[in-house]
Amino acid sequence: MQEEGRDAPRIKSFIRRIGRMTTGQKQALDTLWERYCLDHELVYDFAVLFGRSAPVILEIGFGNGESLATTAEQNPDKDYIGIEVHKPGVGNLLAQLERKGITNVRVFYYDAIEVLEKCIPGQSLSGIHLFFPDPWHKRKHHKRRIVRPDFVHLIAQKLISGGYFHAATDWQHYAQHILKVLTAAEQFSNQSSSQDYCPRPDYRPLTKFEQRGLRLGHGVWDLIFTRR
């Protein structure tokens, strides 16, 4: 029975998996954490954090970090915040940032929803990326999908006017779900000319996994909505 006056526990959209960590990933975490990783208990002023005023893009669930590192390297005029709960992936990204000399990325190793709620100031983000989130394909797990009306309301608070939310998925049913949720949100406008899906923008790199899927004939759906 729920105790009076206490909120119901939040349904997580992820399962934290530690996984096997390479020597390089562990070394990167040990030596580079203080340089790139952020405290999930603090609210950040991005102009102070990066030492300049520039558009800030948030990526939720960056996996092994290869796409985020590539995007940041190719867009030095923008700053990037990455969020991931898979520690080897964080270590992999830190190693790439250091090796390539990329200075416009910072990282949270924490729950994305809590980071958005606690650490990201209102109307501070120019864009939010959600690339290939866990589709939770079983019907009984659909409630765990991160894109829900409460999530859309939250990101609307964090985006500047005209800022965008870009989701990509290789699960058609999840793409349809995201489209339905965002279309119903009055704060957002679909950037698709046909009011459904968009071509992949140049700023979203093709991952090896995605390239393999495309060769096998699998579909990928990009959805881009802007904050009214």
From TrEMBL:
The keyword Methyltransferase applies. It catalyses: guanosine(46) in tRNA + S-adenosyl-L-methionine = N(7)-methylguanosine(46) in tRNA + S-adenosyl-L-homocysteine. It comes from the Bacteria. It holds the Pfam family Methyltransf_4. Pathway: tRNA modification; N(7)-methylguanine-tRNA biosynthesis. One of its GO terms (cellular component) is tRNA methyltransferase complex. Substrate binds at residues 138, 170, 207-210. The keyword Transferase applies. Its EC number is 2.1.1.33. S-adenosyl-L-methionine binds at residues 59, 84, 111, 134. Keywords: Methyltransferase, S-adenosyl-L-methionine, Transferase, tRNA processing. One of its GO terms (molecular function) is tRNA (guanine(46)-N7)-methyltransferase activity. InterPro entries: SAM-dependent_MTases_sf (IPR029063), tRNA_(Gua-N-7)_MeTrfase_Trmb (IPR003358), tRNA_methyltr_TrmB_bact (IPR055361). SUPFAM superfamilies: S-adenosyl-L-methionine-dependent methyltransferases. Belongs to the class I-like SAM-binding methyltransferase superfamily. TrmB family. Catalyzes the formation of N(7)-methylguanine at position 46 (m7G46) in tRNA. PANTHER family: 3-DEOXY-D-MANNO-OCTULOSONIC-ACID TRANSFERASE/TRNA GUANINE-N 7 - -METHYLTRANSFERASE (PTHR23417), PENTACOTRIPEPTIDE-REPEAT REGION OF PRORP DOMAIN-CONTAINING PROTEIN (PTHR23417:SF14). This is tRNA (guanine-N(7)-)-methyltransferase. It comes from Methyloprofundus sedimenti.
